[in-house]
Design a protein that fits this description.
single chain; about 150 residues; mainly alpha; Arc Repressor Mutant, subunit A; 7 helices; 2 strands; elongated
Amino acid sequence: MIRFSRYEDYAVILVNKLAEEYQKRLVPLSEVASEYAIPILFLRKLAGELRKAGLVYAVEGKAGGYSLAKPPQEILLGDILRVFSKRELFTCCPPQMKGKHKRTCPKKSSCITGNMWRILNKEFFARVYNLSLLDVMSEKKGLFSIKA
């Protein structure tokens, strides 16, 4: 099973919530924290990183909150995941081997499973990274389909 980090998972949750309220209102992080049981300090850190990446903006003050910096159809899942993810999801190397070689597997040319995982990583990211927030929101309404 593919596992995303808490950063990636919660960032998608936060940005999806902001997409639902896009151009309606600013969303306080405390509301998102309460609704999804995410620690507020963790959300602040995520929001700060997303803000630096230009995906969200914040308005300070009593009536403040967060909003998307662009329309949901212009923000891709890849834009969000790239802020936090620097790793491959599919790998053939056992955990004890990962730290023993830097970036390139010494068996790359002859490792059949490694080559397969590299191809799957490339295809997975090509599909997932190009889904827009609007696509993700459509999934919640049952309108979503990934074409093979």
